[in-house]
Design goal:
alpha+beta, 2 domains, 4 helices, binds zinc ion, Elongation Factor Tu (Ef-tu), domain 3
Length: 234
């Protein structure tokens, strides 16, 4: 089982850990700050350092309660002590894009009642799918403007856990989240103070101003009841 350091602190850039499983280039650590691809957020990359030897982390994925790190070469062994270092520029951009997604989703949800049916974050542009029959294209510029107003307010973004039953009393708590396994008793909550509260396992910045400026690139129809928005940050 891997302890997920990013769940409590999204700003952990480096950490010490021990190798607990190895299968060729796939390495499991007792703890990690590498975010494993999931929930629309891409994998973190970076490196694992043993002594003066470096193993590039090219991919991280969840396998049960483990995080498996795919490295560029074999050689790590069970019991090895390693230092993990994230490719921080990439991760930080993803944190900004992820937090931007919350803000844009809530702006559009408030305006239209639409739910989020999918999302894919990336470093150059991200997309969100909404369950909407029609897009009011004239309204798009307004959504971006509203989102940027929220960003400029520099609202704190808080992360904490809450019992499942209590969390589900919050309106639209799972608006953005993927389906949660029923076994989960405690939910991780991401709250943009006074604006939005979500159950969510991803990484986020700690205040909205860190997002920067949100720009809507374009919008597409993706079948009945599915509208897709692309945005980027500057
Ligand atoms: Zn999130």
């Amino acid at each position: 089982m891997t302890e997920l350091l990013y769940m409590n602190d999204c700003y952990t850039k480096e950490f010490e850990a021990e190798v607990i499983k190895v299968d060729g280039k796939f390495v499991v650590l007792d703890k990690t700050a590498f975010y494993p691809k999931g929930g629309g957020q891409p994998t973190d990359t970076g490196k694992l350092i043993r002594g003066n030897e470096e193993f590039k982390v090219v991919f991280a994925k969840k396998t049960g309660s483990d995080v498996s790190h795919e490295v560029d070469k074999e050689g790590l062994k069970v019991g090895d002590k390693v230092k993990g270092v994230l490719d921080w520029d990439r991760r930080y951009l993803l944190m900004r894009n992820h937090t931007a997604a919350h803000i844009l989703c809530e702006v559009i949800h408030k305006a239209t009642g639409a739910l989020i049916t999918g999302n894919q974050l990336d470093i150059d542009k991200s997309r969100i799918d909404f369950s909407l029959e029609n897009f009011d294209r004239d309204a798009l510029a307004g959504y971006a403007e509203k989102a940027n107003e929220v960003i400029q307010k520099d609202l704190p973004v808080r992360i904490y856990t809450m019992p499942r039953e209590e969390a589900f009393k919050i309106p639209s708590i799972t608006k953005l989240a993927n389906v949660l396994p029923p076994a989960v008793k405690k939910l991780r909550i991401v709250e943009i103070e006074g604006f939005d509260t979500q159950a969510d396992g991803g990484t986020h910045v700690k205040s909205t101003k860190e997002v920067g400026k949100l720009i809507i690139i374009n919008a597409e129809n993706k079948g009945k009841n599915n509208r897709r928005i692309y945005y980027k940050l500057s």
